[in-house]
Specification:
The protein has 403 residues and is α/β, with parallel strands linked by helices. It is built from 18 helices and twelve strands. It has one domain: TIM Barrel (Alpha-Beta Barrel), CATH 3.20.20. The strands form three sheets. The protein has an eight-stranded parallel beta sheet with strand order 4-11-10-9-8-7-6-5. A two-stranded antiparallel ribbon has the order 1-12. Strands 2-3 form a two-stranded antiparallel sheet. InterPro entries: Aldolase_TIM (IPR013785), Alpha-hydoxy_acid_DH_FMN (IPR012133), FMN-dep_DH (IPR000262), FMN_HAD (IPR037396), FMN_hydac_DH_AS (IPR008259).
Length: 403
């Protein structure tokens, strides 16, 4: 029989350590978010259905996105033990300049739609973390305002080639004048992908007040109040648009662009050129031969061609083909710092993350983006330590086995 006794106060006191309550509701929500999936869950509750689905969704049956995430989830890490990993170094080099982490914030359109603080908040977090941030052509904060918001950040400008080439030239000149470091040309949008969630939600820019959206406003009053009481949405590239996303893309973007047009772009831009949207080894070779300083293996987050190649799957072959001639970045399907480490080990110089920080933005504005960056950086560091890698350059294919 077990002998029992009443505990003495001196024994109970060390166990009763009351935690100081967090009074600010946003800080409280973000403190409870331990993963990007947690931020996604909060974002879904904090934003209207159509806005969340625009961020979260992909093209058609969303097979491309699921496959990309599945490959990351099912890969196997192969740790090397008995190494001193008490102090690991997560810094890497992107376009010849240091980045504190092996990832950058990807360009995303309509960012002030997710939260009124928008691109400026993302740029400020990138500045503090010490990583690059790419502003989208379809951003909702001007090139100049983002530059002013984060003057010391490494800023890249993402460009879609328009049917009106003079408008594109003007954007490139504005980016150069505002001190943007690199130009990122996206090449996988000759026409808009079929994003069926947006069609079903009747999603427009800005949101149209219908019976459905008015009902949604009752559930998300803070989001609507911020939208209606801050300055109207203004694109980096045009003043307004009242139609759907697909209609806008098909109106503006040039489906006749070819590899020869890279020479035109080089004639108006003297800085580093990144080409985003590469999905085959053959195209990787073509754009590198044409002078790309870096390429991004990407299927646009699964938002263009459904059942497109999974970037992580083709990464080792692309790295073997052109890795000695250009920098290779990767996006699509990244939901954790462990994913970033895996891509780095398989040959990527760095990754671009988009949805991850947008979930943070929707969950809590600039503080939410900072929380997303904190989660990713913590996961990168911990995964490196558990793999036995003291620097990102020590990561190599022996650390990862793809299914």
């Amino acid at each position: 029989m077990t002998d029992r006794q009443l505990p003495r106060w001196s024994e109970l006191k060390p166990l009763l350590r009351a935690k100081r309550p967090t009074l600010n509701p946003t800080d409280r929500r973000l403190a409870n978010a331990l993963t990007i999936a947690d931020l996604r869950r909060i974002a879904r509750m904090r934003t209207p259905r159509s806005v969340f689905d625009y961020t979260d969704g992909a093209a058609e049956a969303e097979i491309s996105l699921r496959r990309a995430r599945s490959l990351f989830a099912n890969l196997e890490f192969r740790p090397s033990v008995l190494h001193d990993v008490s102090d690991v170094d997560t810094t890497t080099t992107m376009l010849g300049q240091p980045s504190a982490q092996p990832f950058a914030f990807a360009p995303t359109g309509f960012t002030r739609m997710m939260h009124h603080e928008g691109e400026s908040a993302v740029a400020r977090v990138a500045e503090r973390v010490g990583i690059p941030y790419a502003l989208s052509t379809m951003g909702t904060t001007s090139i100049e305002d983002v530059a002013a918001a984060a003057p010391r950040a490494r800023k890249w400008f993402q460009l879609y080639v328009w049917k009106d080439r003079s408008a594109g030239e003007d954007l490139v000149k504005r980016a150069a004048n505002a001190g943007y470091e690199a130009l990122m040309l996206t090449v996988d949008v000759p026409v808009a992908g079929a994003r069926l969630r947006d069609v079903r939600n009747g999603f427009t820019i800005p949101p149209t007040l219908t019976a459905k959206t008015v009902l949604d406003a009752a559930v998300h009053p803070a989001w609507w109040m911020n939208l209606l009481t801050t300055k109207p949405l203004q694109f980096a590239s045009l003043t307004s648009w009242k139609g759907t996303i697909a209609e806008l893309l098909n109106l503006l973007f040039d489906p006749t662009m070819t590899i020869d047009d890279l020479a035109w772009l080089r004639s108006i831009w003297s800085g580093p050129l990144i080409v985003k949207g590469i999905q085959t080894v053959e195209d990787a070779r073509r754009v590198v031969d044409a002078g790309a300083d870096a390429i991004v293996l990407s299927n646009h987050g699964g938002r263009q061609l459904d059942r497109a190649p999974v970037p992580l799957r083709i990464l080792p072959e692309v790295a073997a083909a052109v890795g000695d001639r250009t920098e290779i970045y990767l996006d699509t399907g990244i939901t954790s710092g462990a994913d970033i480490v895996a891509a780095k080990a398989l040959g990527a110089d760095a990754c671009l993350v988009g949805r991850a920080y947008l979930y943070g933005l929707m969950a809590g504005g600039e503080r939410g983006v900072a929380r997303a960056a904190e989660i990713l950086t913590t996961e990168v560091r911990r995964t490196m330590q558990l793999l036995g890698a003291r620097t990102v350059d020590e990561l190599n294919p022996s650390h990862v086995r793809l299914p």
